[in-house]
Design brief:
The protein is an all-beta fold. It has no helices and 7 strands. The strands form 2 sheets. A 4-stranded antiparallel sheet has the order 4-3-6-7, with no helix packed on it.
């Protein structure tokens, strides 16, 4: 594999005078992963909106789901502890956008 550092890319301003309107979901990260305790999932919202999260096991069975209601714009977090060791998917949804994280629970 190759590692490139100190590369500067110039991106031309193709459309000027147009303000970018962020979608509801920005960055998202999870830690610790793998975890023997609770996971902390941090996500960013571009504006105040409804948020829902769900967790599925490795075979797609819904383990837990929660409607968070209206959540304020900015950085927000979810803490979740797996019921047992295994692989899980956490899905965060808002306004038709979806972010999915793979979680590895150890006990």
């Amino acid at each position: 594999y190759h590692v490139f550092t100190d590369i500067e890319l110039e991106t031309p301003d193709i459309v000027s005078g147009v303000e970018e309107i962020p979608g509801p979901l920005g960055f998202s990260e999870v830690w610790p992963n793998p975890s023997s305790g609770p996971f902390v999932v941090q996500y960013e919202l571009g504006h105040t909106t409804e948020v829902r999260w769900s967790v599925y096991d490795a075979v797609g069975k819904l383990i837990q789901s929660q409607d968070m209601g209206t959540v304020l714009a900015g950085v927000n977090g979810i803490s979740w502890a797996a019921p047992e060791a295994g692989f899980y998917l956490m899905v965060i949804e808002s306004e038709g956008e979806r972010i999915t994280h793979r979680l590895v629970a150890t006990k």
